[in-house]
What does this fold into?
Amino acid sequence: MERALDEDIGHGEFACGALFPEGAEIRARILAKQEGVVAGLPVAELTLRLLDPNLAWKAAKEDGQKIGRGETVVELRGDLRAILMGERTALNFLQRMSGIATLTSKFVEAVAGLPVKILDTRKTAPGLRLLDKYAVRAGGGFNHRFGLHDGAMLKDNYIAAAGGIERAVRTLRERGSPTIKIEVEVENLGEVEQALRAGADIVMLDNMAVPEMAKAVELARGKAIVEASGGISLENVREVAATGVDLISVGALTHSVQALDLSLEVMES
It folds into this structure.
């Protein structure tokens, strides 16, 4: 948050210093200009508190709750200069995170009633992964691995460089920790069989057609967890879920964020 504020404010804003006396206070509120799911309220609050430690912040909603168009999300009172200078940065965090939570909730709702979990990916904004993944959880989704250190995923380039699926999995079993799960990315049923034969814990079906996914689920039943990924949209996610996959990972949750429209408005004292 400090780096984000410094990026925007720099040496200070000329307009605030010229227009408003030091110590002046205002009341303001954050409004939802469209419906969605809110996420990032503690982040926005902390951002403003870095400029005004005495800020009075009264949230009408909690992260993960739905908000309607025109609803007041937060009421606040504090230092006039601090609120105006921190407004954009605080809203940037809040709008991005709420946009992620809102889209995630739509995917979760689309597969309601089916035994599948919606996951994010590592396709996050550099430096904002913790916040992006927190927002996915606020929207009802689940987190895939946080980084490369969280698990062993053999993607296509790893497999090619290692000399094939079975050789790659065997080498990891020999050299890695027995507590680390091994996930293998596959593109066809032949590769599914190779991954299962090698003892993969998770098989990730990459951009596979729905009928092929259903066959892959049958092959892996009782042997490995099955994850679907690639080309997943709100239009086809339920059809994908109906194949029986255990997990569906959606990169668009964080790499194609559409910010939720929120605004801060000064209120009359």
Remarks:
- Residues 101 and 139 are 4 Å apart (CA to CA).
- The chain has two domains: 2-106+257-267, 109-255.
- The mean pLDDT is 94.
